[in-house]
Amino acid sequence: MSATLFFAQALNGIQLGVLLFLLAAGLTLVFGIMNFVNLAHGSLYMMGAFIAATLYNHTGSFLLSAVGVVVAMIAIGFLLDRIALSRLYDRDHLDQVLATFGMILFFNELTRIIWGPSPYNMQVPPMLEGTIDLFGIAYPLYRFMIIVVGLVVAAGCYLLIHKTRIGMLIRAGSSNRMMVGALGVNIRMLNTLLFCLGAALAGIAGLMAGPILSVQTGMGEPVLILTMVVIVIGGIGSVRGAFLAALIVGVVDTLGRSMLPWILREVLSPSAANAAGPAIASMLIYVMMALILALRPQGLFPVRHG
Questions:
Q1: Cα separation of 188 and 78, whole Å?
Q2: Rounded to whole angstroms, how far apart are CA atoms 263 and 265?
Q3: Cα 35 from Cα 236, distance rounded (Å)
Q4: d(CA 17, CA 37)
Q5: Residues 252, 255, 257, 259: is their CA dihedral positive or negative?
Q6: Measured between alpha carbons, how far apart are the two ends of the chain, in Å?
Q7: Phi, psi (degrees; rounded to nearest 5) at 215
Q8: For residue 52, what pLDDT is reported?
Q9: Rounded-to-integer distance, Cα 173 and Cα 201, Å
Q10: CA spacing 20 to 30 A to 142: which of 124, 197, 290, 295?
């Protein structure tokens, strides 16, 4: 494998990691801080992708689509919270799992009814077509934009959690909800705000993934599993951990899929190496997660209170 190809695949791994972080950030806020198990987070990502594709195909403006997705996902998150989820915050995790699993089925059927069973296309915006020169390597401009957006979101999440009054309340509520509520803070409104923010981040992930992935029913379930792996590796409740773990998972997965077939050709036939390489690479993430949990059950970058 040449150095150019290795560097390009490493950038692809960072791009995948950033995309995973957009999902993991929202899920970390809901799962790690609110202590709410939301299996429907992948469905919110799917809804964001469908809404973004629809808006872009009708308006032709990627910027308007981005604004529309954020507004729509905040509205969907607010309605979900008020209609169903607010009644589950104090319930057992099993109740939350069953309820949000039902929402997965609901949203899958909803997208099938509205957009049909076939994949829905979303093209790369013309202004983001082409390539950008990175250290002498021509890298797709749109994939580079995904990295930039992810870094901006990561910086925004850090500033929100650590530099604002709302972030202070979020951190305090994650440590001791009863005490914060006794001090006069409306915990229910704080939970609603967090869930809407998580839904918006999932929608942004769907928006950015739409032009490079197939927008179709059920696209949220596979990425939800990877997002859960990211949260476990990084440390439940840690946005910083989610960001760093997402980069690790993205790079390991991408480099594994590209390099393992090349390495296995030394001992296997090309066809066998091409078949075995991606399969082994897909297991690397879960093997890595198991090793990390064995050595550090709290994750690599656990949240620290106090």
A1: 12
A2: 5
A3: 10
A4: 22
A5: negative
A6: 47
A7: -85, 105
A8: 93
A9: 21
A10: 197
Decide if 285 contacts 226 (C-beta within 8 A): yes
User: Which has the closest alpha carbon to 27: 193, 172, 236, 298?
Assistant: 236
How many residues in total does the chain contain?
306
Nearest Cα residue to 255 out of 76, 2, 11: 11
Three-state SS string across the chain, please? CCHHHHHHHHHHHHHHHHHHHHHHHHHHHHHHHCCCCCCCHHHHHHHHHHHHHHHHHHHCCHHHHHHHHHHHHHHHHHHHHHHCHHHCCCCCHHHHHHHHHHHHHHHHHHHHHHHCCCCECCCCCHHHCCEEEECCEEEEHHHHHHHHHHHHHHHHHHHHHHHCHHHHHHHHHHHCHHHHHHCCCCHHHHHHHHHHHHHHHHHHHHHHHCCCCCECCCCHHHHHHHHHHHHHHHCCCCHHHHHHHHHHHHHHHHHHHHHHHHHHCCCCCHHHHHHHHHHHHHHHHHHHHHHHHHHCCCCCCCCCCC
Q: What is the pLDDT of residues 15-56, one digit of tens each?
A: 989 989 988 888 887 776 667 888 888 899 999 999 999 999
Residues 64 and 56: their CA atoms lie apart, in Å, by 8
pLDDT in tens, 139-161: 889 999 999 998 998 888 888 88
- State the pTM of this model: 0.88
Gyration radius of the chain's alpha carbons: 20
Per the structure block, which two tokens stand in for 204? 């942004």
Nearest to 27, CA basis, from 119, 124, 157 = 157
